[in-house]
Amino acid sequence: MGIAERKNRQKQALRERILDAARRIVMREGFAALSMRKIADAIEYSPATLYLHFASRDEIAQALCAEGYAHLLETFVPLAGIADPAERLKALGRAYVAFGVAHPETYRLIFMEDPSYTDAALSGAVKGKAADPANAGAASRAAATREDPDATTADEASSETAATEADPGEAALHLMISALDELKAAGRLPASMDVAVWAEAFWANLHGIVALNLTCPVFPTAPLDTVVGVALDAWLGASRAEQVPTGAVASAGTRKKKSPETRTGSAAQPDNHRAAQPLAREPAKAAASGVTAPPARRKTTSA
What we know:
This protein is mostly helical and 303 residues long. It has 14 helices and no strands. This is TetR/AcrR family transcriptional regulator.
């Protein structure tokens, strides 16, 4: 190993120590408590040394955001192999909310702290990856892999991994848009549907659920997994396993609320099951219509 390589490794190792210390402070005390001096004390270096690696606290925050967003995308990759596009979108939605609730400080830092931090996260978890010719077109290759009937789940996951490395900001939307394109091609969404706008609206709904949970914990009265399930059904329709005969739900009795420890698990099924074909409607209409069935009209007898 040459001198230059050794110095480069030492520099990289110290950079990682700085980020590790910053991450621990944010997780333990919140972002407001983060300072260059506190980080320097944690790693037993002078503050001046930190400035050789990061120009400011904001630059450290941006690096943490990029790292956290990359972690979020990693949770999406295994879900790419789900065959049914509607169920794939539901799984992505549950994973998104679960990540936000399980990593509140990281989520706040990425999406709720400073727009420049969000830009840093979405512009690329690894600088230079988006410009790397080897990663060009990774998103389209991922979509093509799923369309190939001979493709395996491992192939799909590998292609989706390449897509997330190419451009993390585009990757999450790509995963959603790819599923929406499949729904549209199968006639399960209107032909006039703009899938990119639909994906943005869907993401905004998920973000709202996480943000309310983090900032207004006393606001929701229903368990989080139930709220997520109702929202996903409103957008994508009830899963086949959820479609039960009328009256079966009423006879099942009242569900118990889940404990806080299990609230971030897989989404529970809502007590009021909706019709099975909401996908043919515009998402705005589906969301506006609510999730409870309208009351049955009384029959009137003629005089």
